[in-house]
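Data availability (excerpt). The following record was deposited with the supplementary files.
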Amino acid sequence: MATSRSSIHWAALIYVLCLAWASGSNAARGRPSGNGSSIPSLTNVTVDDLATGLEAGRFTSVDLVKAYLARIDQLNPVLHAVTEVNPDAIAIARDLDEQRRAGNVIG
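Predicted structure:
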C-alpha cells in the first residue's frame, strides 16, 4: 500500500505530540502561546480537544509542536524518555497548517 507524503507528515506530527504528551511550558498549563493562541493543558488534553482547537483556529499545528517540544525540553533531562525528535517537526507542522488554510484537512 502506498503512503502519501501528507500521511507521513501527519503521522510524524502525531508522533512528536505523543512523545511529548507523557513528558510545563506555558502551553502545558493551558496558557497562551507567544502569538496569542490558547493551547489546552498538555497534561490533560485529548485528541478530540486538539482536533477541535485546530478546527476552530484556537491554535495551529506549529503552536502545538512548539508547545510539545518545550515540554520535552522541560522534562526530558529528568525522564530521559525521548531519544530523538524529528528536526523537521516544525516544518512539517507548518506544511500541515498551510494545507488546512487551503481547505485540505488531513486527519
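Summary of structural features: The CA atoms of residues 54 and 60 lie 6 Å apart.
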